[in-house]
Amino acid sequence: MTETIAQWAPETAESVWTRISRSRGRGAATGESPLLAGVLIAVSLIFLALFLILPLAVVFYEAFAKGALAYLAALAEPDAQSAIRLTLLVAAIAVPLNVVFGLAAAWAIAKFRFPAKSFLITLIDLPFSVSPVVAGLIYVLLFGAQGLLGPWLKAHGLEIIFAVPGIVLATIFVTFPFVARELIALMEDQGTSEEEVALSLGASGLATFFRVTLPNVKWALLYGVLLCNARAMGEFGAVSVVSGHIRGLTNTMPLQVEILYNEYNITAAFAVASLLALLALVTLAAKSLLEGRFKDGHSAKTRGH
Amino acid sequence: MKGLSSVSVAIKRNSIIPGFGLTLGYTLVYLSVIVLIPLGALVLRASSLGLSGLWNIATEPRIFAALRTSFSIALAAAAINVLFGGIVAWVLSRYEFPGRRLLDAAVDLPFALPTAVAGISLAAIYAPNGLIGSLIAPLGWQIAYTPLGIGVALVFIGLPFIVRTVQPVIAELEADVEEASATLGATRIQTLWRVVLPALTPALMTGFALAFARGVGEYGSVIFIAGNLPYVSEIAPLLIIVKLEQFDYAGATAIATLMLLASFSILLIINLIQAWNRRRFGQ
Amino acid sequence: MQIRTVDITKNFVGGSARPVLDGVSLEVGSGELVALLGPSGSGKTTLLRIIAGLEFPDSGSVYFGDEDASQKSVQERRVGFVFQNYALFKNLTVGENIAFGLDVRGRELRPPKAEIRRRTLELLDLVQLSGLEKRRPGQLSGGQRQRVALARALAVEPRVLLLDEPFGALDAKVRRDLRAWLRELHQQTGHTTTFVTHDQDEALELADRVAVLNGGRIEQIGSPDDIYDHPATPFVHGFIGEASALRADLRGGRIFIGGHELALPGKSGRNGSGRLFVRPHDIAIGEAAANGLEAEIVALRRSGATRRAEIAVPFEAGRVEIDAPTSANLRPGEKVPIRFLRGTFFLDGESAAA
Fold first, then answer.
1. Does C34 score more than 70 pLDDT?
2. In terms of domains, do A19 and A162 share one?
3. In this predicted model, which residue has the larger pLDDT, C236 or A15?
């Protein structure tokens, strides 16, 4: 690092640009001119600053606009506390369920051949192409008071919509594919030879899974869990439809942010939001670390949501 | 079930790996309970409306306006992202400058930041008294609480789709193709336009479709900045919630069905683009 | 158009101790076909890319004829460059690939559409791909792609033609066919041509002259006969053809192994020890080598039409391999006389002395 800085000092602007535009493993003849390169870099920097960095910075700026005391007081509010607890609870249920599903689905899909496999993968990815609001709606249509199962649930005294189970279900839906698609991609690459060796050496099925398969996919699993958790804690649209916004009972952190914001309690809204933003930053940092660790290529491919 | 178990038997014959029936069974049950049956409930509701019922609801002025707002602004935002996201992807892949790695990681921020957080932050920035809103207010411009505000939120949400789809393709571009173009006398601009851009086009189109699909369904980041004025800045997902609050389940179902149809069509188009691309380049 | 490089030096970007090219001067005459031959890392591709303008030397100049091209960009140099993996534009058809160099010209230099098309078809004919104009590169075989790449390079009427490992990515049979075809094409079009290869057969068979590169320097430039029969350095002798190296001494213009004088001429003037390079077919054995060195057969292997014998030369000079007729009655462990008909002696730490 110090070396880089030392080299920087005596350079002319021209040579800096030359180095910038030619330094990523390309021949001298195929870089953009310093002017064009400069314009492109400037456009990118301004665009990213405006659309990514600024919104992130404003969250923390607004959260602390009235000082650290107001910030802490906003987080100590009972409603905020219960929103935090509910968010943690929902993630603690949804994430493990999707992990178990992801492992089962990846095992079946990656280790065996069967018909309609690619159709099954499409179905698993389906929740990514459904609007979060629609995701909430389908549970209302199924379990709501006027839903298909509504009368039956009511007769048995079971509450799903406008209650915690509905929030958990909606969260599971929107985070459904995260772990599975990570594991399917990696385990299909890895094939079955190591499992076959373990089995032929006398290991049981479970021992093979825990001692051969799981260690091979642990980073991908962690990666999937990370993304799944970030989305589970941050989901807004789907949860908003099924929650009923009952303070202290069915408000998750994102819903609490909405309520505070709509009450013009801006500082408190941003204080709760800052915790979620922190979670996003930790997720991004861990994601970068993991990408350096276990993959080249298939991480950068289309993903997200 | 009979079909499944006979498949399972057939597979056991050529594989010594255990657990096929158990894992596939669990996968199908879980998938059905969480995804397929609830979606089925929607389809069932929609089919009870019938095609003409769907059409009547979709052409109600307020619903039609909301659908038009969602689709047209998502389209525009995706187009803006193709331009700027494409440039960002190029710059992050081809140039070295201080802070590049950090910016590269930051591109995923819209994936990681909860949409409600992004929503209130963007609203705060672009509101008339906000950081940027107050700068442009004297010019008579307003972004927050207008359709422009929806556009800003959808650009934010869609950016990573373009960048992350295009980046790997840029990384795989062969340097010698650009060099070949130069030896044949093409200027750098000609090379970018005639050689590089066509090679990136399928990825740009895929990214465009992904960003568009996401934008149509986006809710959390939009509603705070949109103003949510019926006929002007009210988006389709919000109208679903409005309909639900009015206990108009038919209306909500109709809008949701149309949005689902749209996103499945987009998925299909993406697959077609990729198939066409493979065929065209003969790989 | 003559190509001249003068004292080209190029260092690695990382600044490693040894330069990629270390003062390389080369002249390629007008209409000549010259091969740059060397092992990987010898700098041959870098030299070709510097001539093309794809890379720039740290010092030294490139001349096309009398014109100093060093300061010219690759676009201005008008070279035809054929890349190792062809670098065809995947999104364009074969015809559009060939026409590309004409299409991108400024309005005042661009030929009319009809003329571009006529030239494209003419070139397709020249590279024997008539009728494939509408195909895309993905639908062609390796050999066909290679010929499209060549046609595309020729379309701009280049002043010189540069080819980087032109046959490197092809299988053996296609390679041989294309080699003969390229030779013919060169005679037809008469372009000043330089190509890079690591395959000595390719270089010797195809080129008018061969430049052997090693470690960023030209070891020797000469006709294929020169290079093969009179290697100038130990490296060239070892790199071109098969050869064995034996410890030997030079005293008063005569070459000795142990105390035994060989009937080979050596340069007088310098004395000392060094290495004698001999090729398998320059060693006589048995009756033909009466009064020769007594050497021991170590191993025998069948090799095609002949029998390959590995022979230990006395005085710990080393081992040689020779080809003996299968009829010769040789056994491992047997002592046989051998005689060197030809060889090249190099004093240690020096180039050719014989």
1. yes
2. no
3. C236
Number of Cα atoms under 13 Å in the Cβ half of residue A290: 21
pTM: 0.85
Question: Cα–Cα distance between C6 and C78 in angstroms, integer?
Answer: 20
Nearest CA in chain C to B184: C101
Beta bridge partners of C8: C24
Q: What is the pLDDT of residue B281?
A: 67
- Name, of A202-206, B264-268, C220-224, the range with top average pLDDT: C220-224
Helices A54-63 and A266-294: crossing angle, nearest 10°? Answer: 130
- Amino acid at position A289, single letter: L
Residue with tokens 């800085």: A5
Whole-complex ipTM? 0.89
**Cβ contact (<8 Å) for C152 and B176?**
no
Chain A contact present for C49, CB below 8 A: yes
If one counts every other C-beta atom within 10 angstroms of the C-beta of residue C183, the result is 14
Judge whether A251 and A90 are in contact, CB under 8 Å.
no
Residues C230 and C247 in one domain: no
Of C215, C236, C257, the last residue of a domain is C236
Q: Number of structural domains, chain A?
A: 2
CA distance B236 to B249: 14
Mean pLDDT over each residue of chain A, to the nearest integer: 86
Place of tokens 């895309």: C136
CB-CB neighbours of C308 under 10 Å: 15
In whole angstroms, give the CA distance from residue C31 to residue C29. Answer: 6
CA C209-C214-C219 angle, to 5 degrees, is 50
Spell out the long-range contacts of B101-105 with Cβ–Cβ below 8 A and sequence spacing 24 or more: B103/A44, B103/A45, B103/A48, B105/A284, B105/A285, B105/A287, B105/A288
Q: CATH no. for residue C319?
A: 2.40.50.140
Provide the domain limits for residue C334: 242-347
Number of domains in chain B: 1
Give residue B157's domain range: 51-280
**pLDDT at A93 (0 to 100):** 97
The DSSP secondary structure of A48-112, one letter per residue, reads: HIIIIIHHHHHHHHHHTTTHHHHHHHHHHSHHHHHHHHHHHHHHHHHHHHHHHHHHHHHHHHHH-
> Does A177 lie in the same domain as A84?
yes
Instruction: Evaluate if residue B4 carries a pLDDT over 80.
Output: no
Question: Which of B174, B187, B195 is opposite residue C75, by nearest beta carbon?
Answer: B187
Does the beta carbon of B247 lie under 8 angstroms from any beta carbon of chain A?
Answer: yes
Strand pairing of C209-214 and C217-222?
Answer: antiparallel
- Which chain A residue is nearest to residue B89, measuring alpha carbons? A44
Find all residues with CB under 8 Å of C219, minimum gap 6, and list them. C212, C213, C232, C233, C235, C236
- A22 and A98 in a single domain? The answer is no
**Residue A297's pLDDT is what?**
42
SS3 B204: helix
Contacts of C139 in chain B (CB under 8 A): 282
The DSSP element (H or E) to which B245 belongs, if any, is helix B236-245
Out of B11, B23, B37, name the one closest to residue A113 (CB). Answer: B11
**What's the rounded Cα separation, in Å, for the pair A277 and A279?**
5
Does residue A9 sit in the same domain as residue A157?
no
Taking only the tens place, the pLDDT of each residue in B99-150 is 898 999 999 999 999 999 999 999 999 999 888 989 988 888 889 899 999 9
Check CB contact of C53 with chain A, cutoff 8 Å.
yes
Q: Are strands C209-214 and C33-37 parallel, antiparallel or unpaired?
A: parallel
Query: Do both C171 and C196 map to the same domain?
Result: yes
Q: Into how many domains does chain C fold?
A: 2
Q: How many CB pairs under 8 A join B and C?
A: 80
The residues with which C192 forms a beta bridge, in sequence order, are C160
A165-194 residues touching B, CB cutoff 8 A: 169, 172-173, 176, 192
Whether residues A136 and A9 share a domain: the answer is: no
Reading the block at residue A164, the tokens are 């915690």
